[in-house]
Design brief:
By secondary structure, the protein is mainly alpha-helical. The protein is built from 13 helices and 2 strands; from the N terminus they run H-H-H-H-H-H-H-H-H-H-H-H-H-E-E. The protein folds into 2 domains: 234 residues, no CATH class; 41 residues, no CATH class. Helices cover 75% and strands 2% of the residues. A hairpin with a 5-residue loop joins strand 1 and strand 2. Helix 2 crosses helix 8, helix 3 packs antiparallel against helix 8 and helix 8 crosses helix 11. The longest helix has 27 residues.
Length: 295
C-alpha cells in the first residue's frame, strides 16, 4: 500500500508540474545559480509546502467522512485536469523570483514555498493525504514529483530550448488527473447515482469541456502566443550554449597550440573552473607537483 500511494502521489505531481509554476521557477533559477543549489532550495520549499498539506489532509480526515473526502478529491482532480490545460500568459513566476534575494538556497526555497502555496500541487497533497494509509509516502511522493519535474525541466530546457513538447506535457497531465478524478468519484459517489443517464450526461459534459480547453490551447499555439515555459526554456538553452560558444572563442585551438593540454594550460583550467562553478561542484586546482586536488 505504501509503494502504491508513493507512486500515485509521484505520478500525479510529476505530470501536474510539467510545464507548471514550479518547473518554470526551476528553469528560471538554473540561469542564476548552480544546479545543486537550485535542487536543494526546491527540496526545502517542497518539504515545507507539502508537509503542511499532508498535515492538513490528516486533520481533515479526522472529522469528514471518507466517502465525502473521496468525492471532494474526485471533483478536485477533475478541476486540476482542466487547470492543466489552461492557456498561460506567465508573469507571476518572473515577478516572484525577482523580488526574493536571500542567497541561492533560501531564495529558491522561499520562491517555491510562496509560488506553490495554495496551488494545485499542494491541494493534491491534501486530497491524497486525507484518505491515505501512509501519509509519509504521500509526502515523499509529492516532494519527489516536484524535484523530478524541476530537474527534468532544466535538462530538457538545456537540450531543447523552445522546442520543448509543451502540448504533450499538458495533455499527459490532464489525462492522469482525469483518471484519478474519475476513480475517486467511483469510490465516493453512492451507487444509486451511477445510472446510465447520469454517466452519459457526465461524459458529454467532460467531452465538451475538454474539447474546448484543447481547442483554446491549439488556437493559442497557432497564434504564436509564447508561454512562460517556452520562453524560459529558450533562455536556459541560450544561456548554456552561449557559455559553450564563449569557451570555443577563448581557446585558440590545436592549430596554434599543437596538442591540446586540457586543464594543464591556463585556458583549459579556466574552462574547468567555470564548468565546476556552474555545476555546483568544488573546483579543482593543480599544485606544483601536477596532481589534481579538490578544495
Amino acid at each position: 500500500m505504501m509503494i502504491k500511494e508513493f507512486i500515485q502521489a509521484f505520478s500525479l505531481v510529476f505530470l501536474a508540474e510539467m510545464g507548471d509554476k514550479s518547473q518554470l521557477l526551476a528553469i528560471t533559477f538554473a540561469t542564476r545559480y548552480p544546479l545543486k543549489k537550485v535542487l536543494m532550495g526546491m527540496l526545502a520549499g517542497a518539504l515545507l509546502n507539502d508537509g503542511l498539506a499532508v498535515l492538513l489532509g490528516r486533520l481533515v480526515s479526522g472529522f469528514v467522512p471518507m466517502k465525502t473526502i473521496q468525492m471532494i478529491a474526485g471533483f478536485a482532480f477533475l478541476l486540476f485536469a482542466f487547470w492543466s490545460l489552461r492557456v498561460e500568459e506567465g508573469g507571476e513566476t518572473e515577478n516572484s523570483s525577482q523580488k526574493i534575494q536571500l542567497g541561492p538556497v533560501l531564495t529558491v526555497a522561499t520562491a517555491y514555498f510562496i509560488g506553490e502555496f495554495g496551488d494545485k500541487t499542494q491541494l493534491t497533497a491534501i486530497a491524497l493525504a486525507s484518505d491515505a494509509d501512509a501519509p509519509l509516502a504521500i509526502l515523499a511522493g509529492t516532494v519527489s514529483g516536484m524535484i523530478g519535474a524541476g530537474g527534468i525541466g532544466i535538462f530538457i530546457g538545456k537540450k531543447l530550448g523552445d522546442k520543448i513538447p509543451e502540448m504533450a506535457l499538458k495533455l499527459a497531465s490532464a489525462a492522469i488527473f482525469l483518471f484519478f478524478g474519475i476513480s475517486k468519484l467511483m469510490q465516493g459517489v453512492p451507487k444509486k447515482y451511477w445510472t446510465v443517464w447520469n454517466g452519459l450526461l457526465a461524459g458529454i459534459i467532460l467531452t465538451i469541456a475538454l474539447t474546448e480547453s484543447v481547442r483554446r490551447l491549439i488556437r493559442a499555439q497557432k497564434q504564436g502566443r509564447e508561454s512562460a515555459l517556452i520562453r524560459k526554456s529558450r533562455e536556459l538553452y541560450d544561456y548554456y550554449h552561449q557559455i559553450g560558444r564563449d569557451f570555443d572563442r577563448i581557446c585558440p585551438g590545436t592549430g596554434k597550440c599543437g596538442k591540446c593540454q586540457g586543464d594543464h594550460c591556463i585556458v583549459g583550467s579556466t574552462k574547468t573552473l567555470i564548468q565546476s562553478c556552474l555545476s555546483g561542484k568544488p573546483p579543482a586546482y593543480r599544485d606544483p607537483s601536477g596532481i589534481n586536488k579538490s578544495t
